[in-house]
Amino acid sequence: MSRAVADVMGPVRVRLRPDQPLRAAAAALADAATGLAVVEGEAGPGVFTERDLLRALAAGADLDTTPVAEHMTGAPASVGSGTSVAEACDLMIARGVRHLLVRRGDDLVGVLNMRDVVGVMAGARLGSVPPAKGS
Q: Who contacts 109 (Cβ-Cβ below 8 Å, separation ≥6)?
């Protein structure tokens, strides 16, 4: 796995505001068939994942009034676009996450998810791994 993250990452498909209600976040994730949204706020990006949604539901959050900011993950794990996929895997395992934000300098340029990594490990051609149905 000597490929760089930039070779296998995908685009950010969902961007949310911190004040958006959980129901809107859930709908956006479902519509985009992805499990991660970047939350763009004044304190820098955070992420909201399907796991965050499940935790919010388990805690009894009201989907229509509770803002994403109350259940998002701040200071998400990220890597540089030149990071090797192997290093990114090590970070995913260490942090217990399925997604990493990918940066080029200060710019957010994409997302690496476990499906991307599995595609590399399976020897898939670049771009041949279909989009996740809900990861």
A: 6, 9, 81, 102, 103
Model confidence, pTM: 0.82
Phi-psi region of 35 (alpha: psi -120 to 50; beta: other; left: phi over 0): alpha
Reported as a single tens digit per residue, the pLDDT across 118-128 is 777 776 555 45
Q: Could you please report the per-residue DSSP string of 69-87?
A: GGTSBSS--EEETTSBHHH
Rounded distance, CA 85 to CA 98, Å? 13
Q: Which two tokens stand for residue 34?
A: 């992805």
Domains in the chain, ordered, with CATH? 5-121 (3.10.580.10)
Residue 124: per-residue pLDDT: 55
Whether the Cβ atoms of residue 22 and residue 98 lie closer than 8 Å to each other: no
Q: Rounded mean pLDDT of 44-63? A: 93
- Pick from 14, 2, 24, 17: which is nearest to 111 by CA? 14
